[in-house]
Structure formats: C-alpha cells, structure tokens
C-alpha cells in the first residue's frame, strides 16, 4: 500500500534472477513501468529512467512511460554520452525524466 514521491530506474539490459530466470529489458520494460504507475503518488512525483540497451531510444522511453505511467507536467529526455580525449561523443544510452506538479 506504500506510495512514493519519486522512483529512479537504472535497469540492466539483461540479467538473471536468484533462481536463474532471465530478465531482458525489452521484454520486461512494460511490466516494470506498470509497477511504477501503481507506486507513484498522483501529485508531486517524479520518475527517472536510464536505459543502456542501445536498441532503445529516448523517444521510445518517453512513449512507454506516458502510456504506462500516465501524464506528467514536465519532462526531459535525451542521450547519455561522454566526450573522449579527442572530442568525440561516445554514446552510452538514453534517459527520460518526468515530474508531476
């Protein structure tokens, strides 16, 4: 019955559970976000989602959160990257951040 003002998600692209079960982000992202929808307060809440699976885009993250968690009053999304010593931007993944007033 607990509700939360914020959830920060940093799921692996792939993993194994305690009993050896497989967890694949692309297959389980919907269920994960549905759980978040039930846990977030309807007002004054935020959600941050980092995705390191290179097959997923920031727009896909945005669409998935909006469909499964609901509307927010503000959002930011984009690509995670770092610049190497030669000035090249090296991609790491994407992020989506949203909040409710």
Estimate the strand proportion: 35-45%
Distance between the termini: 22 Å
Secondary-structure content class: alpha+beta
Level of helix content? 25-40%
* DSSP summary, beta strand count: 6
What's the average pLDDT? 92
Short description:
The protein has 101 residues and is α+β, with helices and mostly antiparallel strands.
Describe this structure as you would to a colleague.
The protein is of the alpha+beta class and 101 residues long. The protein is built from two helices and six strands, in the order E-E-E-H-E-H-E-E. The strands form two sheets. Strands 1-4-6-5 form a four-stranded mixed sheet, with helices on one face. A two-stranded antiparallel ribbon has the order 2-3. A hairpin with a 5-residue loop joins strand 2 and strand 3. The longest helix is centred in the first third of the chain and has 15 residues. The chain is globular.
């Amino acid at each position: 019955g607990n509700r939360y003002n914020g959830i920060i998600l940093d799921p692996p692209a792939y993993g194994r559970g305690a009993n050896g079960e497989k967890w694949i982000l692309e297959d389980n992202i919907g269920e994960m976000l549905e759980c978040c929808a039930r846990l977030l307060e309807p007002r004054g809440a935020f959600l941050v989602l980092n995705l390191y699976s290179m097959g997923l885009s920031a727009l896909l993250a945005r669409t998935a959160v909006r469909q499964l968690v609901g509307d927010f009053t503000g959002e930011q999304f984009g690509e995670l990257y770092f610049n190497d010593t030669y000035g090249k931007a090296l991609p790491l993944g994407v992020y989506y951040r949203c909040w409710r007033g």
